[in-house]
Amino acid sequence: MAKPASSRSANASGAAAGTPATPNRERPSEPQRHHAETTELLEYYRQMLLIRRFEERAGQLYGLGLIGGFCHLYIGQEAVAVGLQSALDPNRDSVITGYRDHGHMLAYGIDPKIIMAELTGRAAGISKGKGGSMHMFSVERKFYGGHGIVGAQVSLGTGLAFKHKYSGDGGVCMAYFGDGAANQGQVYESFNMAQLWGLPIIYVIENNQYAMGTSVNRSSAEDQLFRRGDSFRIPGLQVDGMDVLAVRGAATTALEWVRGGKGPILLELKTYRYRGHSMSDPAKYRSREEVQSVREKSDPIEAIKRELQAGGASEDDLKAIDKDIRQIVTEAADFAEQMPEPDRSELYTDVLVETY
Amino acid sequence: MPIELKMPALSPTMEEGTLAKWLVKEGDTVTSGTIIAEIETDKATMEFEAVDEGTIAKIMIPEGTDEVKVGTVIALLAGEDEDADGVAGGAHASAVNTQPADISASPAEDAQAQQATLNARPKIGEAPASLRVEPEVPEGTEMVRTTVREALRDAMAEEMRKDDSVFVMGEEVAEYQGAYKVTQGLLDEFGPRRVIDTPITEYGFAGVGTGAAMGGLRPIIEFMTFNFAMQAIDHIINSAAKTNYMSGGQMRCPIVFRGPNGAASRVGAQHSQNFGPWYANVPGLIVISPYSAADAKGLLKAAIRSQDPVVFLENELLYGQTFDVPKLDDYVLPIGKARIARQGTDVTLVSYSIGVGVALDAAAKLAEEGIEAEVIDLRTLRPLDKETVLRSLAKTNRMVCVEEGWPVCSISSELMAMAMEEGFDDLDAPVLRVTNVDVPLPYAANLEKLALIKISDVVEAARKVCYR
Ligand SMILES: Cc1ncc(C[n+]2csc(CCOP(=O)(O)OP(=O)(O)O)c2C)c(N)n1
Ligand SMILES: [Mg+2]
Prior knowledge:
The complex is a heterodimer of chains A (356) and B (468).
Chain A (H helix, E strand, L loop, with lengths): L37 H26 L14 H8 L8 E4 L4 H6 L4 H8 L23 E4 L5 H16 L5 E6 L6 H12 L4 E7 L2 E2 L2 E2 H4 L16 E5 L3 H16 L5 E6 L17 H11 L1 H11 L4 H24 L18
Parallel strand pairs in A: 1-2, 1-3, 3-4, 4-8, 7-8
Antiparallel strand pairs in A: 5-6
Helix pairs in contact in A: 1-2, 1-10, 1-11, 2-8, 4-11, 5-6
Chain B lengths: L2 E4 L9 E7 L6 E2 L4 E6 L4 E5 L4 E6 L5 E5 L3 E6 L5 H7 L16 H13 L9 H4 L10 E5 H15 L3 E5 L15 H5 L4 E3 L4 H13 L3 E5 L10 H9 L1 H4 L9 E5 L15 H5 L5 E3 L4 H13 L4 E5 L1 H4 L2 E5 L12 E4 L4 E5 L2 H15 L4 E5 L2 E3 L3 H11 L2 E5 L7 H12 L9 E4 L9 H7 L3 H11 L3
Parallel strand pairs in B: 10-11, 10-12, 12-13, 13-15, 14-15, 18-19, 18-21, 21-22
Antiparallel strand pairs in B: 1-8, 2-4, 2-7, 3-6, 4-5, 6-8, 9-16, 14-20, 17-19
């Protein structure tokens, strides 16, 4: 598990939730690490590797000036989106997140080409080049963005959960937000309504230890973020976000809870981002050693690779996946470079839907 | 082929930088994530990471070099199966400065594009026929005396009967029957699934409504008053108004934010403000602010049906006023069309919401003096019905804006700009505006009265532009 920047409470380490605030209130059972056969493991490996390579390439295209503005990479956090979303039903469950959204889209099966083309601002991009890295959506895939205001996706996701309940479609919303976002007021406004109305939502705090340059313990009076739902009677679980199988196991527990009609649940995923906050972050708030040590000790992709090797997956299988992923990413990058920019007339379209 | 490592752009504004330090030397192997150099940008020192695997074959730019242009090849990397020495030997000739593709338009093109901005119009799409045509109220249609409050309630109830995806959410809208009784009776008819009391949590429930609209429902979000929507304005603008554009037309947000706006009576500065100009500033929003009960009904129905996010600004002082509302099964009015509330030939008074009543009273006074004022009720603030305003100006050649709100950057300001840009040749006098005084609204009865628009001020302004 990623090393927390520092913990305020002395006895609060470890993946398991602490003592429940009210012992006689029903709590979800302790999540079990997911058991996966080799084929399933290979699929997790493939998806995480796709995100890793895609993001590395995006960083490279940024360096070449092909991607502009803000570009927030997901490197290091791959196990979170892959482990959680593999448990969802893409035909009915919705996903929403902030600006660090490439990984969640890839994990929901959205074509890397149109994502990369959006990053380069091309007409073939998923938002026709009008959204950019932070604003991508796929209503078809039930991926609702892609939001640039820290915390906004929490209320919006609560609205999506409201929709699931209102229309009785059986769906659950998974709303991701950061450790920094966890300090926004609207998060708690949303918690309150979600629990009050029994909305089917899984709140996911991706605790990558930093909000730009501010570590969790410099910003959070309660730094054990899985407890942040306590005042609203929303149960919380703390999960090792660097272990895709632990994440998957927690997703199963959370979905059981929410689909069982018990209302919202909160997951805190302890994870780490290797790169700067965005591409233009010099990252002076942490040491190179800190990053290096997480990379070496807790990398989610390396971990699953070791597990695969121990389980007898052949070197050739792994190599084949690597090669396949490189190919996909190269094609996406070529596509994103070669496609034309949006037509000038696109400036005026999509402001309003109707004509008045 | 060796991989060229190029001087990266590490911030949106970086054009060149200093190659401060090499952390690898020729012959070192690197993998994705290895930090290979430190680069000083215009803002900070950044680390440059390898993405590909291989061996550093050749360092092209020594450390300490200043003003290295973005895109310059700084090193060559031999891939897994390549011979690093071979790469280094043959590479000198090809190591020219490669600038990143210049994808911005030339200055001349930019100027052209700006011209296009002035001339072009949004693409014309299809809109439901009910929204395009002002309904004829057939001869002999029964008129029902209705308060604005009832008209708004009827509009919501009619649309809720027709479409299960429409629901109302807000503080005290259900069991209390509405803080201003606008939602009276809705809970009884539609039940708590569709008429939902929220906690006092404007930012939160505006976001919940917006998210529900993104998911495909048609929420009506009531703010107890628009003063409190300041806490929610982020969702109205950043989440609701911009999503369709940011998603390239993929994600709709059919939501109505409604509630009383503008000054009420003796409630002090924090509860008395007209937000019309604020929201009318935002592309991606529809802003409606009706005066009469018939317009309130017909436009609220249109707002609920619209695929676009609508800010619907009501007025507490008008809630109890009674107007004729045609008794028709489905009375829907077009968004974006002003109404000529009174015909006239000598001066055009343009207003909206409660200001229309002031303008009509002023017109009656002016008529006694032989000045026939035409009164235009804008009804929709965005998109503004330029055509109706300019046509009237062409007829009267004089214009006074009447607005219950502050003067600076107001709807009046916009109307005056419009008259300058597109009605200049029709003007026989400068356009004047009658607005509230430019101060927070005071509590004392006499001061409050002084601060708000008055009939006599409108009469005086009209006389002035008529040189009488
Ligand atoms: C309301 C708001 N305030 C500030 C910002 C600027 N900002 C963008 S990301 C960020 C840090 C957020 O950190 P966290 O929630 O931990 O997410 P992470 O970037 O780690 O994924 C800040 C302050 C913003 N976009 N929105
Ligand atoms: Mg963070």
